[in-house]
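Hi there,

I know you've been waiting on this one. I reran it after we fixed the sequence typo, so this is the corrected version. Both the input and the resulting structure follow.
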Amino acid sequence: MRRAVVIGAGGQIGRPAVEALARDGWEVTAASRGGARHENWPGGVRTRRLDRDDDAALGALIGDGCDLVVDMVAYGARHARQLTGLADRIGAAVVVSSVSVYEDGKGRGFDTMGEPDGLPQYPVPIAEDQVTVPPGDATYSTRKTALERELRAVGDRLPTTVLRPGAIHGPYSPLPRELYFVKRNLDGRRRRVLAFRGESLFHTSAARNIAELIRLAAARPGSRVLNACDPLPPAVSKIGAAVDAVMGVETQTVLLDGPARGSVGGSPWSVELPVVCDMSAAEREPGYRPVVSYPESLPETVEWLVRRLSGQDWREAFPTLARAYPDLFDYAAEDAWFAARPAW
């Protein structure tokens, strides 16, 4: 039986990836910092504790060798060198990167969005040969580029599929963007404001669709980079409407013609210019077809979010999201904005 080692198996992508590989006949070792115990995994999945930064522990996990390593948490050149240093014991790898590595050709990318004239103008759609930010240690994006460069430098010595997902969604997310709508509905907020007329497009990636692409890439190993996104992404206003439908509520959405007014109108998807990725390479090479649409994936996401929020502050439940978007639920500012516009 083919043996696969999944690193970061207890996370948002790792859980469905383990399930997909196990169903496909792989003997899976699921490794994570917490031990990756998950009662719903198919029988035969082995679980192991792993500190991703411990070289000796990673080498022991690989043991005498495996056919596949799937790495959800690799980050920076050092992690890439860990994997390439074990190339003689690994048949192939699938490593998760990010669409945040893309640059628009004028030095603008995700890292410059908040700077004057820093808004990237990407082609629509973005293909995998689009220029990327320089590698380095300064930001998430530059470290993901460094990871990719190191892995690609070894070529077929370690055939590696690098996947670039967009706005990942699904249960067990440390950064669940859907909370923006779910919490408002739970809090009885029946009016909301969306910048850019709610038309922002930030390509979504269902964890289950990424897992399917992992499964396909594992069956057809090679050295390549692939976008890992859903079909055409829904606009942010459509996401809100879909969440409302799942939760059975009716809301009023006020659309701003331009950007957010301070904290009012901004959302985790609110970009002025579209970020939409070309999925034709993934469809052509490993034969990717999405297994779930955005609306189809929402019920389990909403259910998980409601359960996680029960009895605790959202910042405690989702500290990563709170750090990224500290003003996500600035209701006082929203109320003041509405009060200043009685016509609404």
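Quick highlight: The radius of gyration is 21 Å.

Best,
R. S.
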